[in-house]
Amino acid sequence: MLHLRVIVPADESAEIVDHLRDAVGVTHLVVSPGAAIEPAGDLVQADVTREAADAVLDALTARGLQRRGAITMEPLDTVLSDAAVRAEKEAPGDPDDAIVWHELTGRTRDDATLSVTFLAFLTIACLLAAVGVITDSPVTVVGAMVVGPEFGPLAGIAVGLVARRADLARRSLIALMIGFPLAMVVTGLAALLGEVSGLIELSDVTAADQVDFIYQVGVFSFVVAVLAGAAGMLSLVSAKSAALVGVFISVTTVPAAGYAVVAATLGQWAVAAESAAQLAVNMVGIVLAGVGVLWAHRAVGRRRSARVG
C-alpha cells in the first residue's frame, strides 16, 4: 500500500474527506484540522492501494491541491490491518500489476535529468568500459554496465511517449545526446594520453577476444535489448528495483560506447562504426520494449476498469 498525505485548505477539507471516504481502495483515513502551517490548512492522511492510487491522485490534482496545498505519497513496507485487506480486495486488479503514473513519471524525471552526477557516472562507466576493452577483461566491462546510468533516460523517453509527456521525453533525450558524446570525448582523450605515454600498447582492438561480443552487432543484440528493456520497465512500474541490476548487465550500451572510442583512437573506424551501431540498436530496443510494456499495462488496466464499471 501507499501512504497519502495531503495539505488541504480548510474550506475544502470536508469535500476532500468525503471524496476519499467514498473512493475505492482508500482506508485509514485521518484528518488533523489546522495541523498544517505552511501552506496553511488541514492535514488529511490515508492509505491507498496501488491499484487505486492513480485515480485518487488524478482526482486530487484535478482540484488543484498541488497548487494550493500539497500532495505526497510514499510506499508502506508493512501494513497489518483488516481494513487494508478489505481495501485491497475492493480495488480491481493486483498491486504488482498497477502503474502509479504520477510516481513513474516523477521517478523517471529524476533519473533522466542531465546533471553533474549523471555525467560523472556515465563518464566513469565509459572509462571502465575502455579499460575493459584494453585489458580484455569481461569483469571490468560488466562493472561498466552496472555503473552506467543510461537506463534512466531511456526509460524516460518511453514513459514520455506513452504518457504524452513531451517535456519528459525531451529531458531524457537531451541527457543522452549530451551525456554520451561528452563521456566518449573524455574517454577518447584518456585513451590517447595512455597511448602516447606508452601505458596502452594495444594496436588491434579486435585482439581483445574476451570482449569482442561488444561490437558484434546482430539480431540477438536487438533481442537482448528488447528483453532487457521489458524487464527494466516492469521493474520500474512494479517498484521492484532489484531486477534493474540484471537489466544493466544484459545490454551493451556503455561498453559499446567505450569500445567505439578505443577503436577510433587506433584508427579502426569500421570496428568503431559497428560499436556505434551496437549502441544505437541497444538504445532503440530498450525504448521500444519500454513503450510496449507501458501500452500493454495501460490496455489491461482500461479493460479491467471497464469490466468493473
Q: What does this entry look like structurally?
A:
By secondary structure, the protein is of the alpha+beta class. It has 2 domains: 2-98, Alpha-Beta Plaits, CATH 3.30.70; 103-302. Helix content is 64%, strand content 11%. It has 13 helices and 4 strands. Strands 2-3-1-4 form a 4-stranded antiparallel beta sheet. β2 (26-37) and β3 (40-48) form a beta hairpin. The longest helix has 40 residues, at 269-308. The chain is elongated, with a radius of gyration of 24 Å. The two termini are 23 Å apart. The mean pLDDT is 88. InterPro entries: DUF389. Keywords: Membrane, Transmembrane, Transmembrane helix. This is Hydrophobic domain-containing protein. The chain crosses the membrane at residues 112-135, 141-161, 173-193, 213-237, 244-270, 276-297.
Q: Give a quick account of the main beta sheet: strands, pairing sense, barrel closure.
A: 4 strands, antiparallel
* CA(first)-CA(last) distance: 23 Å
Instruction: Report the count of strand segments.
Output: 4
Range of helix content: 55-70%
Keyword list:
transmembrane; membrane; transmembrane helix; 309 residues; 2 domains; 4 strands; single chain; DUF389; elongated; alpha+beta; Hydrophobic domain-containing protein
Task: Furnish the topology, listing elements before pairings.
Layout: E1 2-8, H1 13-22, E2 26-37, E3 40-48, H2 50-62, H3 65-68, E4 70-75, H4 82-90, H5 101-111, H6 116-134, H7 138-147, H8 151-162, H9 166-197, H10 219-237, H11 242-248, H12 253-265, H13 269-308
Antiparallel strand pairs: 1-3, 1-4, 2-3
Pfam families: DUF389
Transmembrane segments: 112-135, 141-161, 173-193, 213-237, 244-270, 276-297
InterPro entries: DUF389 (IPR005240)
